[in-house]
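Intended use. Records like the one below are meant for learning the mapping from a protein sequence to its folded structure. Do not use them to infer anything beyond what is encoded.
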Amino acid sequence: MSETDAADLAVDRVAVAFARVVRGAGLDVTVGNVTAFVEALEAVGVVRRTSVYWAGRATLVRRPEDHAVYDRAFDAFWGSGTGVEAMPPPHEVHIDLSLDDAGEAGDAGEAGPTTRPTIAVRYSPHEVLRHKDFAAYSPAEFVEARRLMADMRLAGALRRSRRYRSSGRAAGRPDVRRTVRHALAHGGEPVRRAFLEPATRPRRVVLLCDVSGSMEPYARALLRFLHAAVVGRTRVEAFALATRITRLTRPLSSRDPDAALSATADAVADWAGGTRLGEGLRAFNDTWGVRGMARGAIVVVLSDGWDRGDPSALAEQMARLRRVAHRVVWVNPLKAAPGYAPLAQGMAAALPFVDEFVEGHSLASLETLVRVVGGKG
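Structure written out for the chain above:
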């Protein structure tokens, strides 16, 4: 045995012996603690008393209230002495926080002088905008919100497709064509077999946006959201609901937001008018929905639920829609109001046929809607 190996063995024995003394003093010392203590001693050595003390305290002691017990065990095993430097006691530091607003120049100089350290705290205007109600937006905030909505990608939850794709697992449907092609490269021997598995694709998303007079404070922002969803090219169909229904997928397909909203305004003849949700849904079901567009799709209705029509007609059309759609999501901007209850006759009639009832008054609520539609909410 070399001198180095002998020295390491001696360090290990000393470390284990000291760990037993500490455990006997009442501390909970695990095998992992002892291993860490051995590695620490191998790194710092056993020559300096201070190094041994702090190596053991860092690896064998878990709680601050056990320091006194450890100190007594250390003195009993290594002998008392004055070579161990005590850790300085903690002291309180008072720090002043100031708001660092980059847009308010000169405010920092108004505060009086102070001898305490100061930390400047910044706030994010985007975070404030995310939770602000659309009805309280300024024109400049609408411009910024449009840019933030452009980053949203609305895609339906994945469903099993009729198509197949190559699989890396030895399971599923055999891929005869690819297996034969591999065999031809090895003299006709099927050395490696190939398999297929069902592919997935996102479900179609159908957006029905209420543009009646009661929704006017939110319709502008929600149409911006519809535009971002349609140009995302993820199988999204958009419609406007008021006294009639208008398909907006083609007008909103322009990548220029201003041109898209201008074309939408020209296409919707009953903008900011009355609301007949039942008649609008009947027209949608008869013309597009039940025939195929809503089958297996995620249908999102963006409305406050105020309806001038017959509530029983709305309930009947919602029941028809629910039978063919995969999920029905209702987005109500008024849901975020304190004390809100779905007492409007249209909302009360539609709610039994809704799978998800979410808010729609802010950017943050629309982000939640994206997760719900994608099956992640």
